[in-house]
Amino acid sequence: MYKHCQNREPSVSPGRVGVQPNTKIATLIFGLFHGFGLSSKILDYEIASDGLLPNLLAFNVGVEIGQLSALALIMIAMGFWRRSARFMAQAYTVNVVVMSAGFMLIGYQVTGYVVPG
């Protein structure tokens, strides 16, 4: 499908990158952090105890619909981007930017827990 990406040397050799993480464990850890973040956010809402279960279910269904919608848009955009001639040249830089933004967001979230506001 992506013929222009085949038989190309990676921009960073696997020896320099280090150990490839286990994707199942990485997904589990990501899911745990994500779940804890959402559970702490829902605590901010004042939900009556008599409607707790329907509200929790509605919240979770809404979160899942939002995630599936975002994933669909990302997959469509990635499909077009991977077909471009500049994908291999841009992929490393975009990965660094996205990871940096993620680390900054983690720092922002942790600061909110540590620093009294």
List the helices and strands and how they pair.
Blueprint: H1 14-17, H2 23-42, H3 52-83, H4 87-114
Please provide a written account of the structure:
- Helices cover 72% and strands 0% of the residues.
- It has four helices and no strands.
- The longest helix is centred in the middle third of the chain and has 32 residues, at 52-83.
- It is extended.
- The relative contact order is 0.08.
Key features of this structure:
117 residues; mainly alpha; single chain; 0% strand
Fraction of residues in helix: over 70%
Number of alpha- plus pi-helical segments: 4
Instruction: Report the principal-axis shape.
Output: extended
User: Given the helix and strand composition, which structural class is it?
Assistant: mainly alpha
The N- to C-terminal Cα distance equals: 51 Å
What's the SSE pattern?
Answer: HHHH
Low-confidence stretches: none
Radius of gyration from the alpha-carbon trace, in angstroms: 19 Å
Query: Biggest β-sheet: count, sense, barrel?
Result: none
- Percent strand: under 5%
